[in-house]
Write a structure and sequence with these properties.
The protein is α+β, with helices and mostly antiparallel strands. It has a five-stranded antiparallel β-sheet with strand order 1-2-3-5-4, with helices on one face. The longest helix has 22 residues. The two termini are 22 Å apart.
């Protein structure tokens, strides 16, 4: 099965979130996703990158966020990683509406959104070493819908 991949690294600055979202969307567009699928993928990239910047690096622009996107057949795998502070209590962090930064008026729905928009969702984190979010989604090509 044919495989294609890309890796993107950028400074943990909030203005790079849209750059990451658009870059991943452009890469995935080769699968000819529906508008809904593309929107879902852009949303999960935004959520994961924002988590890395705000929670992982505490908005320290010296941090680096890494995104790896891989396409195998009709499936996209996205991995968003940081080497920031990590998550102390992963189960608590995955609870809907939980946020470690209520002063920023965060909704605490990032992990819930990622889990609901993707077919597979996995978070691994080590306090003091960073966090990795791995997500998979099968793309129903628009071409297949019209044939």
């Amino acid at each position: 099965m044919e495989r294609n991949f890309m890796t993107l690294q950028f400074a943990a600055k909030s203005e790079n979130e849209s750059f990451a979202r658009v870059t991943v969307a452009a890469f995935i567009s080769q699968l000819d996703p529906t508008m809904d699928e593309l929107s879902d993928l852009k949303t999960v990239v935004s959520e994961a990158v924002t988590n890395s910047i705000i929670h992982g690096y505490d908005s320290d622009a010296e941090g680096i966020v890494t995104i790896t996107a891989e396409i195998v057949g009709d499936t996209v795998t996205l991995t968003v990683e940081d080497r920031g502070r990590g998550i102390e209590d992963l189960e608590l962090a995955k609870q809907p509406l939980y946020t470690s930064k209520p002063e920023l008026e965060r909704s605490g729905m990032g992990f819930t959104i990622m889990e609901n928009f993707m077919d597979e969702f996995e978070v691994s984190s080590e306090p003091g070493s960073g966090t990795s979010i791995k997500m998979k989604k099968r793309i129903e090509s628009k071409k297949a819908l019209y044939n």
